[in-house]
Amino acid sequence: MKKNSALWILLCVLSASMTVYAHDGCKKMAQMYFSKDKHTFAKPEEAFVTHLDWKAKIVFEERVIKAVATYTIKNVSNATHILLDTKDLIIEEVYADGTPTPYQLGSPVDYLGQSLDIQITPSTQKISIRYRTKPEAEALQWLTKEQTLGKQHPFLFTQSQAILARTWLPCQDSPGIRITYDANVNVPKDLLALMSANINPTEKNFEGNYHFKQEKPIPAYLMALSVGDIGFKSVGSRTGVYAEHGMLAKAAYEFAEMEKMLLVAEELYGPYRWGRYDLIVLPPSFPFGGMENPCLTFATPTVVAGDRSLTSLVAHELAHSWSGNLVTNATWDDFWLNEGFTVYFENRIIEAVYGKSYAEMLALISYQDLLEEIEGMEKKADTKLKLDLTGRNPDDGLTAIAYDKGYYFLRHIEQTVGREKFDAFLRGYFDKFAFQTINTEQFVAHLRAELLDKVPNATNWIDINAWVYGEGIPKNCPKVVSEKINRAIEEAKAFTNGKKAHLIDIKSWSYQQYVLFLRNLPKKISQERIAALDNHMKLSSSGNSEVLFVWLSIVARNEYLSGFSKLEEFLLSVGRRKFIAPLYKLLAENERTLVFAKNVYAKARPNYHAVATQTIDQTLKWDAK
Ligand code: BES
Ligand code: ZN
Known about the structure:
Elements: H1 3-18, H2 22-33, E1 47-59, E2 64-75, E3 81-86, E4 89-96, E5 99-100, E6 103-105, E7 114-119, E8 126-133, E9 140-143, E10 155-158, E11 178-186, E12 192-195, E13 209-219, E14 225-228, E15 230-234, E16 239-244, H3 245-254, H4 258-269, E17 277-281, E18 290-291, E19 296-299, H5 312-319, E20 327-329, H6 335-354, H7 356-376, H8 400-417, H9 419-432, E21 436-438, H10 440-450, H11 458-461, H12 464-469, H13 483-496, H14 511-519, H15 527-537, H16 545-557, H17 564-573, H18 577-587, H19 591-604, H20 610-619
Parallel strand pairs: 1-11, 16-17, 17-19, 20-21
Antiparallel strand pairs: 1-2, 2-8, 3-7, 4-5, 4-8, 6-7, 9-10, 10-14, 11-13, 12-14, 15-16, 18-19
Helix pairs in contact: 1-2, 4-5, 4-6, 5-6, 6-7, 6-8, 7-8, 8-9, 13-14, 14-16, 16-18, 17-19, 18-20
Ligand BES binds next to β18 and α5.
């Protein structure tokens, strides 16, 4: 039996023994079990989905997915309706236990889409929705063959987090509602399909029919699909990489340490529960660095630096197999529970694989990110760990607060109680809440009961309120020292005070040192000095996307025209929002560079994913029509 339904039945039996009316009891249990999520139309306290059977045909010519989604449901309140989320879906027919049933699409709400209200009876077991997607479905990116590396075949990939799963699958799109799934997907022959599933193919078949199974219950934001001329290369007994063929060897080299990371992660916080751990390197328009789709991390090619220097991204996405995918934030207001824990876990993996000095370097960068984010933040309330995203897009919560303030909070606890106790606590946390969700309040209660109350004076040191519900960086925030980073910052200060570029000692600098050096330079630098820096540090020709990004920010901000062809090339070839959105923003700051930005954007926009264009359209006041 599926773990979540087993848990559910246990809860209902418990509640039935407490109340006369089992269903009312179940409803109460459901109300307790599901945190109120304002980013879904679903009402899981009445009826929720537990398993999905998805049959889909991927039609590249029309940029459409035609599918039937059949859900097994659990009705906890004798409900006569079940509510799903949709956005831009064309619903064709809906069935309850095989018979057509009335349904209604609600009126569209900004970024939330439309509710799909399906009529059921208290005994309905299954609902089926026959539907198709629209070409502009936000989660989907359809690439023409010219937009791929191989240039022979088109490509499709999804990005569902936070609330875009509903643009390609009618679903209860709330992180608290988990489903297992089976899928049968038909794609053009010559293409391979992959999903966030524990059974994934490694080779194409002639019919283009692929079967998938995810046997662990996952929330809708972890539903994922990728279709293209994709190959596979194993890098360990449970690990491997997928990529377009031209990228495969490079990717396998870059991520050769995946298996080691997996072993280290298990050593730290217990067994990996998802079977295989593979990674797919997507085309450059993938809008994020990485996405922790279960069993199959989606990654940007901008981390394939050629020298394994950016593999902390793998540590991060792998860590989500515990923090996020196993123990999931109940709502997007609790997003820090996903990301803060993951940054902490990532850092521990890095420490175990590459050593303390490397990990401390990353930790200090995380602190710098946090300072920068807080400085630039418009709304002070957004510097709280626990967010209130009422009436806002959950995307607004995607800031360094969740990641880096979250990280420092956990590090502060670790340092206060000692690593041994903290590790034992975390292992217990992942076990206790495995395949469940947790909100901030539940976490705080658990933290007190299982850790802080057991350590004398711990609560005197750890001001939970200030960390979780307060603004900014609390007192007692751990101080991190990194010799290497300090040296880079020192050099930045020296340069600012007039030291000549060619005298800066960059021998054996890591890319992180370049990044921190560049980030600590003054906003305005003379053209001659920028040229001297480029000449000495070979910045324009750096193969490291992180270095290139900060360098090009300097180019844009200072209108250093010799760097503009590289800037244009970068904007045309990279779709990762973290890089391109800030660059367009800098360029939009004055009229001259704004003209340049708009020209480049006109060419680049068709290559970007909707997640990126939505942000940049606003920055450039772009009229999408
Ligand atoms: N889950 C996130 C990406 C995400 C968050 C997508 C919220 C949509 C909404 C992923 O794990 C992540 O954090 N990616 C980072 C890289 C990481 C190394 C910090 C990114 O994409 O930059
Ligand atoms: Zn993450």
